[in-house]
Design brief:
Helix content is 0%, strand content 50%. It has 294 residues and is an all-beta fold. Strands 10, 11, 12, 13 and 14 form a 5-stranded antiparallel sheet that branches. The protein has a 4-stranded antiparallel sheet with strand order 1-25-24-23, with no helix packed on it. A hairpin with a 5-residue loop joins β8 and β9. The termini are far apart. It comes from Pseudoduganella chitinolytica. InterPro entries: 6-blade_b-propeller_TolB-like, SGL, SMP-30. This is SMP-30/gluconolactonase/LRE family protein.
């Protein structure tokens, strides 16, 4: 397929752009800039605005009852944004071992509306595999579901919800795993390697599954999106104007627009586009993420 045209969202520059989400109820996109402690919104009229949170927000998802759920520095929170620019946060749960230098990272809801996010040690150069993956549902915050992660990323689910994907984007890993997923209990099992980006390019950052069941991975450091079939075969690459794409998701009324956030690399050749947020239409349809139901 032809390379799609890419539209840059005006007036947006993120040091570490992450966690784009489409809220069908309000017809708006949301995403975060982690170190800036900022939550961004792009509405249906093309207007952007942002809110300053009290601490770093790493990932978010719309809630069925309104507002957002977010993985932040010190736990998972309920987040409400107000027209006057203020932000209200309420703690939903905090892991007992979320120590100094750690925070939540990538997050997404499963098809049943459970919110998942994992933790990481922020200084990636330390190479600490102390990250863990957690589930938030009607029982509150779970015990760790997956452990031993350097930089948790890449959460998404197959169209039927019965396969869960998870990646570790640290240079020491570069792996994407698939799990069998029990939709009734929210318990993953039978972990296996789905894709090893050492066989391709980049590091597997945030990701999303489309309506065909294909897994779109942001290849951080390689400046592209990689689409893998449900069998784990690479079948498409889309080059991007920045070096460090961080996460992507489908949205828009027809679910045919892909939004991609990015991270500033600090390299001169990336100065014009690093930190931008872009929209593109890759010619396939996405799936609507379930809002957080709890």
């Amino acid at each position: 397929m032809a390379q799609p045209s890419i539209e840059r969202i005006d007036g947006v520059h993120c040091a570490t752009g992450e966690s784009p989400a489409w809220d069908a109820a309000t017809r708006a996109w949301y995403w975060v800039d982690i170190p800036a402690k900022r939550i961004w919104r792009l509405d249906a009229a093309g207007r952007t605005r942002s809110w300053q949170a009290p601490e770093m927000v790493a990932c978010l998802a719309p809630r069925a009852r309104g507002g957002l759920v977010a993985g932040m520095e010190t736990g998972m929170f309920d987040v409400d944004l107000f027209d006057n620019g203020s932000v209200a946060v309420t703690l939903l749960g905090k892991p007992a071992d979320l120590g100094a230098g750690m925070r939540f990272n990538d997050g997404r809801t499963d098809r049943q509306g459970r919110f998942w996010s994992g933790t990481m040690f922020m200084d990636m150069s330390a190479g600490k595999d102390v990250g863990k993956l957690y589930r938030y549902d009607g029982n509150g915050l779970s015990a760790p579901v997956v452990e031993g992660l350097f930089t948790q990323n890449g959460l998404s689910w197959s169209p039927d919800g019965r396969t869960m994907y998870l990646s570790d984007s640290h240079p020491n890993s570069r792996l994407v795993w698939a799990f069998d997923y029990d939709v009734a209990t929210g318990v993953p099992s039978h972990r296996r390697v789905f894709a090893n980006l050492a066989d391709h390019v980049g590091r597997p950052d945030g990701a999303v599954v489309d309506a065909d069941g294909c897994y779109w991975s942001c290849a951080n450091d390689a400046g592209c999106l990689l689409r893998f079939t449900p069998a784990g075969k690479l079948d498409r690459r889309i080059d991007l104007p920045f070096m460090k794409p961080s996460m992507c998701t489908f949205g828009g009324d027809d679910l045919e627009t892909l939004i991609v956030t990015s991270i500033v690399s600090g390299k001169p050749e990336d100065a014009a586009w690093g930190g931008a947020v872009v929209l593109l239409r890759p010619g396939v349809q996405g799936l609507a993420d379930a809002p957080c139901a709890f």
